[in-house]
Amino acid sequence: MHRRDFMLLLAAATASATGACTTGNDASAPATSLKPVETSAAPPTTPSPSPTPEPSPTPSRSGLWLQDGPPELPAPSAPDSVITGLPESVGNTVALTIDDGADASVIDAYLDFAKDSGVRLTFFVTSCYPGWTDCKDKMRPLVESGQVQLGNHTVTHAGLTSLSEAGILEEVSGCETFLKNTYGVTGAPFVRPPYGYRNATTDAVCARLGYSTSTMWYGSFGDSGLLTEDVLLGEARKWLGAQRIVIGHANFPTVTRLYGQIIEILRERSLLTATLDDVYFGPGHNRRV
């Protein structure tokens, strides 16, 4: 046999054997790259070992990345019946708390923000809004890891001081039932009274349901209603600080365009974020019921 004919025959046989290792319907299988055929008259009797594949590069983090897990915190102690800020012992730590949830796309964007930055968030859920159900598949892993905490902001955002005892019980217990049924967690002991309306009576009724800590705030982004980007960013610069509980709202998309600037404020001030659970019960606290 002529040398040229032998080489063509050998190449065809190699291609046929390689094709038998893949399925014709596997559209995801990479195209096979053949090595040059040896020029010796007889092929080697033992195959050469396959080269060890190089490890895949570690995915680069978003430019938003701020922190890995909770900050270093002192030993936890139970919260008071009313809190407006964090204990001084937490140092340069701030609690970002996000209320309401009227716009599902804003809830969704906050979850992406948490995943892209490592920021830890406490959502105060108003359970009548469908976004809390619509976003549950993306939310659950963050809740289970402890990066996101869920608190109680009632069912319909009714001012508790205007309600009867039965009305308060219905609003708070209804939201608690939603958290248990949808996420398998309790929001207790943290309840945020809508509009900040609370008194000794509302506190006592909430405490009967396990909601013994009325969670107020030190500052707010002011975005329960629609703001311009400049105004919202000005509020963020005004209020983000150590040992503060700061409110944002998942109601309008303005904040979703400012995540990078919010991270820069936190970096400039050497602030890390923590959930209320991180501070008062310790990282990894199990809220499951």
Automatic annotation (TrEMBL):
PROSITE patterns according to UniProt: NODB, PROKAR_LIPOPROTEIN
Pfam families: Polysacc_deac_1
Coiled coil: none
GO molecular-function terms, A-Z: hydrolase activity, acting on carbon-nitrogen (but not peptide) bonds; metal ion binding
Skewed-composition ranges (Pro residues): 44-58
One GO term of the biological process aspect: carbohydrate metabolic process
Residue span(s) of domain NodB homology: 92-289
Entry keyword set: Hydrolase, Metal-binding, Signal
UniProt signal peptide: 1-20
GO CC list: membrane
Region (Disordered): 20-85
UniProt xrefs under InterPro entries: Glyco_hydro/deAcase_b/a-brl (IPR011330), NODB_dom (IPR002509), Polysacc_deacetylase_ArnD (IPR050248)
Highest taxon, organism lineage: Bacteria
SUPFAM superfamilies: Glycoside hydrolase/deacetylase
Protein name in UniProt: NodB homology domain-containing protein
The species this protein was found in: Actinomyces gaoshouyii
